[in-house]
Structure prediction request, 663 residues.
Amino acid sequence: MTAPLHDTSAAGPAAVAAPEVPQKAIEGRSPWKIAWIRLKRDKVALAGGVVVLLLILVALFAPLIVGLLGHPPEELHEDMLDPLLGLPAGDWGGMSGDFLLGVEPVNGRDVFSRIVYGARISLLVAFLSAFVAVGLGTFFGIIAGYFGGWVDAAVSRVMDLLLAFPQLLFIIALISVIPSKLWGFEGSGLRIAVLVLVIGFFGWPYIGRIVRGQTLSLREREYVEAARSLGAGRMYILFRELLPNLVAPITVYSTLMIPTNVLTEAALSFLGVGVKPPTPSWGETLSTAVRTYEDDPLFMIFPGVAIFITVLAFNLFGDGVRDALDPKGSR
Amino acid sequence: MLAYLIRRFFAVIVMLLVITLVTFGIFFLFPKMIGTDPALYFVGKQSDPAAIEGIRQKMGLDDPILVQFGKFVVGLVAGRTYANGSDVTHCAAPCFGYSFKTEQEVWPLLTDWLPVTLSLAAGAVVLWVIGGVATGVISALKRGTVLDRSAMGIALAGVSLPIYFTGMLAIALFSDQLGWFGRPEATFADDPAKWFNGMILPWVSLAFLYAAMYARLTRATMLEVLNEDYIRTARAKGLTEPVVIGKHAMRSTMTPILTVLGLDLGALMGGAVLTEYTFSLHGLGYSAVRAISEHDLPVILGITLISAFFVVAANLIVDLMYAVIDPRVRLS
Prediction:
């Protein structure tokens, strides 16, 4: 992305040339239009995008879907279990028209509705924490890159420090000391808020580094100098001149950050420091499945596949977005 | 060069101090803010007030946090003596304190867990570097073919699978159903063959994840390098393709890979939390999760410090290696 987004100079000469070729009108194409045309040609990425969209819809309409096809996610169906073993009574993990993906061992909850509701937690945490990371990373990255000097030194050292932390250990440690009630939040709401903040906080240095690097090269550009000589203030240059030109790399890294966050949330819930049961989460379902997978292997497959599909779809889509926005366009 | 080394070494020390301080803060300041007492974690909730008071005196839990921090750092370097009246315990350097849970010294515990973690990392790194780099190079050379597409498809699937899921599937399939490999139960000293057999699944599961990442990275870098002018020059002067790829292109391709490798290894040596947890390997990562759930602060602090040390050291080594691999880089 070399030109500012609102720059229409590409359209200028084209418009002059247009009358001489009447059969095919030449129109100016913004970098975003070009990217969109490229993305449309990338079938694999589009497929990923469609799956992402479907997952978001599933998460949004979880109550509706479960209302039509399942049972409430926290409802116990002990009658569906073998009374002696605590395992699903039917074959294939108790799968039937009534329980589409079977029932959970031990307490007999509907696996289908727990997977559907799990999408909510997974996507909510992934999106919000990406949002936190992108916000912090962009702000500190742009400031470090533009002002340089001690601001840059301080921000860069903090980023180095955060990257040197054993992150997963730290997130677990931090969550484990958080009490069950804090600042008026409690239960699952508090856990989700903490997960979002902690995952986001440890994610911002990655974006911060990229934004800083880009800002370093952009601030020497003529258009920034032009803005400065016209008397634009610092804030104007930072957020109206520089930021629009950083949107492309920020978009790419935020789409690629979401699958990582999905994995982190699932890992934390798997380790027992994520969302609190009985709130459904894929990682938590997997960790209960560990105990019974020898007798009921299918129960383990569903949450694993759900995580896999989600992460894969976001990765495919993110790769496509990156290729589409890559000015070198080599593919 | 020497000045650079000294400055970097100093930075490493400062960074480790800050990490220790932050960890300290999380476990001492945070419980205080929300009104629990660290001494309670040590003696359990049922103990009588006198015992709690004794522990608190002996461990210095009443001191201001900065004093406790100072004592901890001094203990790391010079050893430390805990005393409460006649009750005196000496802990030799490097003193990481005593486990709240088992009341053992932390340092010997750490040196018990470290070999498990190191053996996991060492086996996996060999597999994934060979597998990942070879796949990436071949994919780049055969770009666009069925081979390239399927390899990259598998790699993308590989980075999208959580390790605990692949690990559990691997255990269910290869260990429980087919019985090819055992669970990691024996140690190397007990029975090397059984140990090796048990480590195969953890190695392969961990290596699969990383090989997928490295294949993608290698392919992308190789494609970029192949577009460079000096590759065209090398071909133009009549060098054979194996020489162009093997000697000229590979050297540039390896620079980013070695960077990532150094950082990944550094991170793994501090404990592959999820892999160790999935396979019940009692290394640093597994022990960290257990210590955290037991609020065993000295153990958590010890593991965090060791992990951070590896990451920071890996960073330094990577930077130094740059100067060796890439002649354009000058350290200053």
